[in-house]
Amino acid sequence: MTAYADVEPILRAINEGLVARYIIKPWIRTELVQVLRWAIEAWTFSRDSAALHRRLLETERLATLGSIAGMLVHDLKQPLMSLLVNVEHLRELANAAPLLRDALLQAPIPPAQRARLIELIDDLDPVTSDLRTSGNHLSELISGLRELGRPRDPRTQASATDPLPIVRHAMAVCQELAIPARASIGYEGPGELPRVRMPATELTQVLINVVANGAQAVAARGMPHGKVSIVARSEADMLELQIRDDGVGMAPEVLSRVGTPFFTTRADGTGLGLAQCQRLIGTVGGRFRIESERGIGTTVTIILPTAA
User: Fold this and answer.
1) Is the pLDDT of residue 168 over 80?
2) What is the DSSP letter of 266?
């Protein structure tokens, strides 16, 4: 138990394994007593089974993260709404881009400045679209935090999602990770893909996570002209997406632990990204596989059921 009230040190302590159960002041006496009883029981378990003790602590750390997430939902919603409103104002400006371009062509300004301004105007539409997509994705993720404690109805069918726009959005979002390393992110596959039985928000979450990991691995290798490729192919009633990178790769002992909650090789990582990806893919009846070789690169294969 600690006295931290700020979220950042709480998350750091949980990620480093220093905290298993967290309560925030002012303490409620009954809650404090319950936590102390749990701690005594956990210590008793540890004498009999170290594996059981580790599993118990891991479960409690996940529950603690869930509690913190619940507290943050309300605080995140308000700035997000302001962001989405301003994105719509930016959309109005993007819609006026042709008029602005014509006005610039007639304006008495130096050619170099005119060319730069026209370039910025031409970027308004794609940038606004990416901002809107990212904002809506974040809004749905925050709304999804409210549903964490509610089991899904097994009779509910997952929505049918077109994966190609999500692939292109994930590529756009992750470009900023690839550009400083002089690397590229590309798509190899047909111009149309079958819809998959997975909600768009969850597929976006998975693809951004995996593509970002690939871009970071390429950057970590430190060699120019690295590449992350998203390769798509469909067969029967399944869609296969492979995310390949020629980054640093992973040693066998690291690969065997990838996807374990809280295991990470990055100083700023949480160790929850790939574990969440595996869970989301498995929930819709898909498969998630990682292959990697140190110094060669990594391939993540995602297989999803297609919609009827």
Assistant:
1) yes
2) S
Residue 239's CB: how many other CB atoms inside 10 A? 24
Q: Is the overall model pTM greater than 0.70, yes or no?
A: no
List, for residues 255-277, the tens digit of each pLDDT value: 888 877 666 777 666 667 788 88
Q: Residue 42: which domain range?
A: 1-150
Using pLDDT thresholds of 50, 70 and 90, give the confidence band for residue 162.
very high
Residue 304 is inside which H or E element, if any?
A: strand 297-305
**Residue of 303, 178, 297, 161 lying closest to 232 (CA atoms):** 303
Q: Are residues 118 and 165 in the same domain?
A: no
Provide the sign of the torsion angle of the four alpha carbons 150, 273, 288, 201, taken in this order.
positive
Interval 87-126: pLDDT, tens: 888 888 889 988 988 898 888 889 899 899 999 998 888 8
155 belongs to a structural domain: no
Q: What is the DSSP letter of 301?
A: E
Instruction: Show which of 124, 150, 176 is a domain's final residue.
Output: 150
Q: Which residues pair with 66 in a beta bridge?
A: none
- What residues pair up with 251 in beta bridges, in sequence order? none
> Domain end: 150, 170, 189, which one?
150
Q: Which stretch of DSSP H or E encloses residue 243? A: strand 238-245
Q: How many CB atoms lie within 10 A of CB 166?
A: 25
Which token pair is 114?
A: 């005119």
Neighbour tally for 90: CB within 10 Å: 16
Overall domain count for the chain = 2
Tokens of 132: 């809107």
CATH label of the domain that carries residue 193: 3.30.565.10
Residues 195 and 291 in one domain: yes
